[in-house]
Every structure is written in C-alpha cells, then in structure tokens.
C-alpha cells in the first residue's frame, strides 16, 4: 500500500473515531485568565443603583477560582476619566476581590465609556497592571445603557484582540448598539436585567465567564448566519505536527469540509455555511512527538436575513430578559451621527392598564428628520416580540393586547433616510388582573331603566 494512501486511511479513521466520541477531548482543568470588571460609576447612575451593581459584582466574583496560577481580576470605573480601583495582581482570592469591590466608592462625573474601554484595553494587555500574556481576556461591562462618547470603535478593537465581551444592562440603552458591542452570539453575552434582579443571572454569567477562561478548549466566536471563527490554545508547534479541522452539518455528517493547518495555528474562520444550522466541529492535532486528543464542538449559526428576528430568551428564574439574535438587527451605529438623526432620548410609560399601556418618547422629531418610528415590545419572561409602526411626526402610541401583571421590554426605534437607525429601550409593567367595575346606578327618575 502506498504511504500516502495509508496515511489518508489512518487520518479518516481517526476523524471517524473522533466524531463518534471514541476519543474524548482533554479533561477540563482550572480556568486561567484576566477578568476586568468595567463599572459605570458616573453621575448618571443613582447611588442606589450603584450600590446594587457593586453588590452584584461582589457576589459574582466571590466563588471564582482566583489565584496566582488561575484567574486574576481588576476593576475599572467609568466616569469623566477612567480609574482603576485595583489592578490584576493585587488580590489572590475571590473573597478579597469581593471585599475590594464592596469598598469601591462612586466616582461621579460624565459617562465616558468609550474612553474607559480604550483604557481597559491597555490594562488588559499591560504587564505593569498585572496582566499576563497568553491567557484568555474577559471584560464584563455593567451599564445603565448610556454613554457620552462612542463605544463601538474601542469595543471592536477589544474583540479584534480576542477579548470576550459580556454586557449587563440594567434595563435601558440601545439594543442595536449593545448587541453589536457584545461578543457573539448576543443571547449568551448580553443580559437585560432590572437592577433589583441582578442576582438572577449571577450563576449563569459566572459559568459563561469560566467557560471563556478555559484555554484548553476549542471554542467559537464571531458567529454569523454564514459562518463562525474557531480558536484553540497552542497544542502543537510548527515543528511538532499539524492540525486537521473538520466541520459538518449535524444532520449531514457525510458532507464534511476539512482544512489542514500548520502546528502553530490557533484559529480559523469558516464561511459559506447555512444559517440557523447546527454544525459539528472536530479539531485533530496530528503530532509526531506526542498524542494530543481531538477536541469537539457544536456550533449553531444565527438566523439569516429571511428568517431573522429578535427573540426573547427566558432567564434562569424569573423575568431577567436577554436579547438574542445577532443577525437582522439593522444598521449598527459606530461613531456619531448627524444632528438631524437624533434618536429618542427618553421613554415615558403612562396609562398602564392590565392589557394596555401608552408609550411616549422625546424629542418629538418631525417628518424632515425621521422617516418613521417603530415600537417593538415583548415579555421579559419569554415570548414573541410584537411591532407597531408609528408615522413620522408622532411621538406616542398605545400598545394593546398585553398580558396583566407582566414586565415588558419596549424599544422605540427611529429610522432615517440614510438607512441608519437609533433606538432606546425601557422596561414597562402592566398591573395585575382586570378590575371589575361596580354597576353604575340608574339615573334618577328612570324607573330603574337605563335611558
């Protein structure tokens, strides 16, 4: 048998064994990485909200495996100027990090989040701040949804450097911009939670952070309807072997695509895939020095344009909502827009009834500014989102057919002739059950009959 034929048969057999699960990936080990908490400490946050968020971050950090050879944590404040509360190498346990977070004082000032993100990038990769080269980087940004400067460009720079971005919004903010800013898929990395219910997501968020900190695992990022990027730790070197990467639809394993990569490769981007489809991925390290077991992963591509939509995710225990679906979100805004494209800056909920409520927004922009508005709303506890179109020049509408005693996330979006959109979101609650009205007494002299 020819040598290259034997090699091909051996490789095919190994891939088949890997797909069948006969060979398992390496056992999970303690996570390792640098975790940076970005806390909105500006004057736009009330003292009560700041204290609740500070308590949440402390609870989130306390059980984490922090230590010299494990996780390192740092806290940076958002204000007029960014400020480091403590660097990565100051605390070596979850308990001491929790105490340091609880002792943090609100800085006040303006909400220059973009400036703080640029500063966070420097801190995450600066050895002087205690950051370590070659370990996973995770940023957890807790915000009330507002910023005085653009967050898109510095956030994209962080993602380009491989930083995993988690965003927790306490019920306000632009869903389009926050979905674009968080790591993909948005349903895993973006949470909308009322400030009093932050504890609901603590366990799930902590687990997601730990998953991102386990560098021995093959993992996916930048998931789109047509592809995703795969990354893995350096298991080989250029001289010790090579990788064979295989991706196949879970329902059609016989249509697998393969790619051979050098031993010093640590990532690869697949494109040309089908939307809304499960794909099985196998990474096979072929080494002439030592045995390195294959790694497995299942990735689901996002919905495409034709079937895309905003979906509401069900929180672990309650109404803590998450905005899902990175595709079909409309134009994503980075940088500033023309003055005439100012979107809604304030949402007012009024006339709340068990099955309806009124939504108003300001400023009221005329037809010369916006082509139209649309209001999208859906229950935070899970369920389908609905949409109402509002003509240009109007700044209010009544939402009908709601459920009594239910929390909703309402998003008002202004659409402009340039194709851009600007949006703002707010939480709204309908009161409990229909109130029965007492019978109206008949008018005097009617003999008990209604006129």
TrEMBL record:
Annotated signal sequence is: 1-18
The highest taxon in the source lineage is Eukaryota
Region (Disordered) residue spans = 420-451
- Is-annotated flag, keyword Phosphoprotein? yes
Positions of the VWFA domain: 34-213
Predominant location: secreted
Q: Where is the Fibronectin type-III domain?
A: 214-306, 343-433
| Residue runs in coiled coils | none
Where is this chain's protein located in or outside the cell? Secreted, Extracellular space, Extracellular matrix, Basement membrane
Pfam families found in the cross-reference section: fn3 (PF00041), VWA (PF00092)
Q: Does the keyword rRNA-binding apply?
A: no
Q: What are the entry keywords? A: Basement membrane, Disulfide bond, Extracellular matrix, Glycoprotein, Phosphoprotein, Repeat, Secreted, Signal
Q: What's an example GO cellular component term for this entry?
A: basement membrane
The protein's matches in SUPFAM superfamilies, at most eight in alphabetical order, are given as: Fibronectin type III, vWA-like
Described function: Promotes matrix assembly. Involved in the organization of skeletal muscles and in the formation of neuromuscular junctions.
Describe its partners and assembly state: Homodimer or homomultimer; disulfide-linked. Interacts with HSPG2.
Q: Which PANTHER family match?
A: COLLAGEN ALPHA, VON WILLEBRAND FACTOR A DOMAIN-CONTAINING PROTEIN 1
Under what name is this protein listed? von Willebrand factor A domain-containing protein 1
